[in-house]
Amino acid sequence: MADEGGSTRASGQLEAMFALLAEEQRKLAEFQRKMNEASTTVESANKMLTATFDGRGELVGFTVNNTKYRAMAPNELAEMLLDVVRRGRSQAFGKINTMAGGDVLPGVDFGDLSAGKVDLNDVVGSILTSAIDLPGIVRAAEQQGRGDG
């Protein structure tokens, strides 16, 4: 049975853990807002094509700015289209990673996760490792409760 001091300490740790949870929820809501507002626009080298991507890296607009494509071989045009889309998605995913402010999940790059470049087994392992680190969570909560963090 815990003494009164132990009960107070446990209550303080619980409050600090809830405060950490609330802060993480606030950060997640802010991240979602930024993603909804984000946009990336990329042009082909000759300015003939313009592609626009939303905050999730999805293609939402594509413009042909002139008629130069009429003189191009079909495979040349296709290659240019793919290049614009690849560069745009890469830049959009880079923005996602920057907006996330580092690893959303320990050891998992969010831009790579969004681009489908991360093995889902690694993601699950990262989540489980984070969940298992209860002593680390308690230490962080205690530091926040003392004003150290």
Essential attributes:
single chain; 149 residues; mainly alpha; 3-stranded antiparallel β-sheet
Structural overview:
The protein contains 5 helices and 3 strands. It is mainly alpha-helical. A 3-stranded antiparallel beta sheet has the order 1-2-3. Helix 1 (4-37) packs across helix 5 (134-146).
Portion of residues within helices: 55-70%
* SS element count, helices: 5
| Strand portion | 5-15%
* Mean pLDDT over the residues: 80
Q: Cα-atom Rg, whole angstroms?
A: 23 Å
Please report the total strand number as a whole number: 3
Could you name the ranges where pLDDT drops below 50 across 5 or more consecutive residues? Answer: none
Give, in order, the helices and strands.
HEEEHHHH
Major sheet: arrangement of strands: 1-2-3
Overall SS class: mainly alpha
Shape summary: elongated
Outline the fold blueprint:
Layout (H helix, E strand, L loop, with lengths): L3 H34 L1 E5 L5 E6 L4 E6 L9 H27 L9 H5 L5 H13 L1 H13 L3
Antiparallel strand pairs: 1-2, 2-3
Helix pairs in contact: 1-5
Quick take:
The chain is mainly alpha-helical and 149 residues long. It is built from 5 helices and 3 strands; from the N terminus they run αβββαααα.
